[in-house]
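Limitations

Structures in this collection are predictions, not experimental determinations, and the ligand pose is part of the prediction. Treat each record accordingly. The example that follows, with zinc ion as the small molecule, is included so readers can see exactly what is and is not provided: the inputs are given verbatim, and the output is the predicted complex.
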Amino acid sequence: MQYHTLLHVISGYLYQHYNALATSSQIEKEHARLELSFSPEIIQEIPFVQLEQSIKKLLAQSHSVYTKILSRDEAEQKEGTIKTVINLLPASLNEIRIVQINDIDEQACGGTHVNNTTEIKNFSIMKIQNKGPMKKRIKIQLLD
Ligand SMILES: [Zn+2]
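Predicted complex:
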């Protein structure tokens, strides 16, 4: 739950500030990783060395995590990455579960989350790899 919610926060933050789109994520026992694609003009400008501190600051601000059910019509009115995700859902799905972390992230998601960002304990960014000119892979680890 902590890893999953943390991935929401990181991808939401990078979307809001740098228009990054999360393309895949994976959660293992001891770490998690997230792949994002950026526009080539922006990727060079992003202060990745400060990312860990920026995310920690955001988590400490105590943002609530909400879920709500929207009709597909309502969900399709939304802007941003959420639209892409909803377009990929089966057409037979009429109700869509939305997860919102205050103004940080809003996604269609069926996963389990913590209730507040302060429940995510200390973490570190283990490494950030280039995956081609427009993609980065971010590997994170929760610390005890
Ligand atoms: Zn989720």
